[in-house]
Structure formats: C-alpha cells, structure tokens
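Sample intake sheet
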Amino acid sequence: MKLTLDIEHTVTERDGKTHFDPFETDNDLVMIGTLTDKGEEKLFTIYHNSVYGQPTETEGMHLINFDGAGVQELLDRATILIGHNIVHDLVWLWESGFSMMVLSLTPCLQSTYCNVDRSSRCR
C-alpha cells in the first residue's frame, strides 16, 4: 500500500535558534496525518493545547486519547511512504516508538518516496 504521511510537532527556541528535532526534551509529536492509496484519510492527534476543542485552564500540552496502534498498523501495511521531508518525519516516528524498515529513499521535486521492507523491522 502507498501511504502518504505527514507529522506535526512542537519546536524549541533557544539561543536565537529553532530546534525541530525529537531529541529536544521540550519538543512533542502533536499530530500524524495519513492518506492511503485508496483515499482513506486519518488524522491522529496526540497532544494539543485544548481538549476536544475546548481551551484548558492549565497551560501546556495535554495528551489526547491517541491510537498509536492505528498508526503502527498503517505503517506495517505500507510498502511505499510518500511525504514532504519524509526523513525528518521518519526520525520523529522512530524516536516516538514506531517501527519500520526503509530500504531506499528517492527524492523528487515535491515529495520523497520510501520503499519499505516488510521482512524486518527497526528498533
């Protein structure tokens, strides 16, 4: 299955620089969006500064009822991953506990395609 993937995350500002990586302890994976080659679109919200659309009284991010198994199931079925800056997204997914084996990356003008190995898993 071809799977188009995009992630959203928080960033850390420090010393005049923006840090985008998952290795910053204050950065959080916020959302994962997917689209299959059959047109099935799913949005997985992980953290948000409101709960179910209502602003919260406390500051900070709140864990939403997150379906990590649903994301992993889509990754397990994928033979090709498609996404803008997919290497960045893969690092975030791996560091967030998801697993997949990437055989090759083929950059193109607007997206990158990943061939995914079904016979073995990372981590």
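Comment: DSSP finds two helices and twelve strands in the chain. Residues 2-80+88-98 form one domain.
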